[in-house]
Amino acid sequence: MPVLEGKELRIVAFLCNWCSYGGADTAGVARATQPTDLRIIRVPCSGRIDPLFVLRALLNGADGVLISGCHPNDCHYSAGNFYARRRLEVLKQFLPILGIDDRRFEYTWVSASEGQRWQQVVTSFTQRIHELGPAPRLEDAEPLLEMADMALKPLRPLGTGQKAPLDELKACIKSKIKDLDVVIGWQQGYDAAHTVPLFMRTEEDVDRLVWGPFNVNNPATYVNEMIGKAVPLDKVKKIGVVVKGCDSRSIVEMLQEKLIDKDNIVLFALPCEGTFDMARIDRELGRYSQIDKVEYDEAGVTITADGKPHRFCITDYAQGKCYNCSMPLAKDADDIFGTAPEIKGTPSTPPELAMLDAMTLEQRFSFWKGEMDRCLRCYACRNACPLCVCKDYCIAETREPHFISQEWNVREKIYFQYIHAMHLAGRCTLCGECQRACPVGIPILALRQQLVRIIGQLFNYKSGMDSTATPPLLCYKVEETNIKQREL
Ligand code: FES
């Protein structure tokens, strides 16, 4: 059939070989008239479709993407479409944060005998895309750079943690260190206003352990490399980790995914009173040749750099995640010192996400074009992520399969950041290490925050809270409570 309204748009359709492809064939054999905008790609099952296929199509010139598989309960591989349904629904709700209209993407189910239904699906989807018109192109978008206002009202009093029972913790670690290969914590870095990870193997090492608002790194980042399932059995160690509440969630998530064994890890915990956003502190300090001293009080610190004092109140300079933190003390730790403060109120929308929420689709599209153009593809975000556990085989670099190229353009950079975010869907605990590690300060945490929000709404799930729970994209329900079939 005739092209709708005399012009043809580009629609990519991924069809499951066993049902929908047969349905399209049935419609063809029956000579049912259909729009000609569709370019069909046959896949073995809807479960085979990586969400990247959809984004690639949409950013490479497609005006719409349609996915169709077997009806629920009819999948040739029994559950491929159930897994796909969860993944595709998350994707559909995620696209708007990138500035892509979610009506340009749809998924549905058509069986091999439903030639008539296929005709109706394809006609109504094509009609919808024609109403929307050609998709915006990255090349045409004007880059937009905006910064979020980071300060929020905290859910509990923030402080500098100087009254935390650090000596008790040190005594406990010393009593256990002979049974552990290493204990990970923090020590002073190149000056008193920065810390670096500390790997304690002796009692003298334990004396270097520090606690306070400069302990920004998530020590869970090192855990998988030491005791993960990819480590040869004879090299697996028994380790200890000193954790803040947010760090402990990364470890709980690793236990959930069976990446590590609880027998190989001991968690030590102190109540966290918040950590500094070091990017903002460094920006405020400006250029300096040396930090002379750091003085603490309950509300913040005074950093003297090159003889000039700078005051930083923790309530003004905390990391975005600290304002919304409702778990300052790790709940599943083996040795806990101190008590958790009372949490008052409910978390508000994180600042980066609130900024994007206030934008139009066009503005978001331009925003990510501007921000991703600055990405160096240094992979610091990936390397700092405690749950990016396949770094050695990362599809961002692999040539087999060759998902994304090393070409230096915004599109490839968006693909990388998008893959990184989607691989964390239902797993990310919002520790913020990706954004903190980014040397150019791209607010990539917003992508994870949006995924966490979607996962919470769809599956009523929060990652890293229960070591016995199954992450929602690793399971399915035959009848999904919050995913409704959209009719085409
Ligand atoms: Fe058709 Fe799985 S075989 S959706």
- Residue share in β-strands: 5-15%
- Average pLDDT rating: 93
Shape: elongated
Which stretches are poorly predicted, pLDDT < 50 over at least 5 residues? none
Helical content (DSSP H or I, runs of 4+): 25-40%
Q: Ligands bound here? A: FE2/S2 (inorganic) cluster
State the major sheet.
Answer: 5 strands, mixed
Q: Structural class from helices and strands?
A: alpha/beta
Task: For the record, give the distance between the C-alpha atoms at the N and C termini, rounded to a whole number.
Answer: 19 Å
User: What's the gyration radius in Å?
Assistant: 25 Å
Total number of β-strand segments? 12
Count of alpha and pi helical runs: 17
Instruction: List the helices and strands in order.
Output: EHEHEHEHHEEHHEHEHEEEHHEHHHHHH
Query: What is the strand arrangement across the widest sheet?
Result: 6-5-7-8-12
